[in-house]
Amino acid sequence: MAEIGKALLESGWLAARSTEVELTGSQLTTTHPPTGPNSPWMEAVVPGTVLATLVKNKVVADPFYGLENEMIIDIADSGREYYTFWFFTKFQCTLSGAQHLDLNFRAINYSAEVYLNGHKMVLPKGMFRRHSLEVTDILNPDGENLLAVLVHPPDHPGRIPPEGGQGGDHEVYIFVQKKFIHLDRNTGIWDEVSISVTGPVNIIDPHLVSSFFDQYTRAYLHATTELENRSAWVADCSLNIQVATELEGSVCLIEYLQTQHVSVPPGARIQYTFPKVSDAQLWCPNGLGKQSLYNVSITV
């Protein structure tokens, strides 16, 4: 039985240029997974960009050393296929009967096809989009799961114009673009990947808002969250919120604790707003007061 909560998939990743891999995503995640950093596969930087992976494996020069960045081919000259890459990893997870699993991508640039144990899922395009896929029904019974992600660069990566793009003689702008432009256009899995184990009811997108009164001498915290019931029966659950303030070191003082009983219909998603949570200390600018920090935990 898996432990409820989130686990990062941040190690053990491999990567390979798509044009050098003859297998399909279904084959990579069933019968023919890569066995290690053997050509064309290499150790991958996740979270990170394709260029970061190439630099790590010394496939291209270090762009931060001298003028070696000029030795790296720009995507406008290489074509999108040059920076289209497979990323592959494995993870262990065995669920109990009432548990569910989400596969989460906090950011992929720009588009991706996800394969898990032979099943294909296509992610919507966009650099800053979050993606959460429920994969409960496609996990392997033995607990070992194979994940492959084919990441594509932006559809229209653009090109550095020979005359630059700013005013004057353009020389400064040409230098800046050639020195610091992202030659792969930041293609890659550039933010965290995780799996989340939940019970029948899942908490989605908690939202915290502060409101101020009496000329900013008092502040209250308001919390709203969505609850999704993935079961086939009415879920009567206890929704808990805890607000704690950080003291010195790792010590926290619980300032507020509240439990609400909520019923969620089968297969439904509802929005729930807690009653006014607590008095909150204001965050003061440097030199004018204390910067109060709070840890807010919402569980179901």
TrEMBL record:
Signal sequence coordinates: none
Pfam families to which the protein is assigned, alphabetical: Glyco_hydro_2_N2
GO molecular function list: hydrolase activity, hydrolyzing O-glycosyl compounds
InterPro entries: Beta-gal/glucu_dom_sf (IPR036156), Beta-mannosidase-like_N2 (IPR054593), EBDG/EBM (IPR043534), Galactose-bd-like_sf (IPR008979), Ig-like_fold (IPR013783)
Top-level lineage group: Eukaryota
Beta-mannosidase-like galactose-binding domain boundaries: 39-155
Family annotation (Gene3D superfamilies): Galactose-binding domain-like, Immunoglobulins
Keywords from the named record: Glycosidase, Hydrolase
Protein name (Swiss-Prot/TrEMBL): Beta-mannosidase-like galactose-binding domain-containing protein
Organism phylogeny: Eukaryota, Viridiplantae, Streptophyta, Embryophyta, Tracheophyta
